[in-house]
Write a structure and sequence with these properties.
75% helix; 64 residues; rod-shaped; mainly alpha
């Protein structure tokens, strides 16, 4: 049987990083929603946020 030592600090570090990344993504999407609401072109929203065009189009269609 293979036994791996569980390290609480490692587990917390991974969880923190996952949460940080998720929060950053949500922030970028919120910025894109706000930019779309102000009438910015999807290409400009892409350059500002770095989100892919598919995500920007999804956010744009969700506002209607």
């Amino acid at each position: 049987m293979l036994f791996q030592e569980w390290n609480m600090n490692d587990a917390l570090a991974v969880r923190f990083e996952e949460g940080h990344n998720e929060g950053m993504e949500r922030g970028r999407e919120e910025t894109a929603r706000n930019a779309i609401a102000q009438g910015l072109a999807p290409e400009l929203v892409h350059r500002i946020t770095g989100l892919d065009m598919e995500t920007i189009q999804r956010l744009d269609s969700a506002k209607n």
